[in-house]
Amino acid sequence: MKQNTRVAVVGGGLGGLAAARLLQKAGINAQVYEQAPSFLKLGAGIHISPNVMKVMRVMGIEKDLEAAGCSPDRWRSRDGVTGEILFEIALGDIARQRFGASYLTVRRGDFHGMMLGTLQAGTTHFGKKLVDLKDTGEAVILKFEDGTAEEADIVIGADGINSKIREKLLGPERANYTGDIAHRAMFSARGLKGFESDQCSKWWSGDRHIVIYYVDKNRDEIYYVTGVPDPEWNATESWLPSSRDEMREAFAGWHPAIQSLIDATQEVTKWPLMDRNPLPIWSEGRLVLLGDACHPMKPHMAQGAGMAIEDAAMLVRCLQEAGLNNHETAFQLYKANRSERATRVQRVSKQNSWLRFGEDPSWCFGYDVFEVPLVSAQAQQAHGLAL
Ligand SMILES: Cc1cc2nc3c(=O)[nH]c(=O)nc-3n(C[C@H](O)[C@H](O)[C@H](O)COP(=O)(O)OP(=O)(O)OC[C@H]3O[C@@H](n4cnc5c(N)ncnc54)[C@H](O)[C@@H]3O)c2cc1C
Question: pTM for the full model?
Answer without folding.
Answer: 0.96
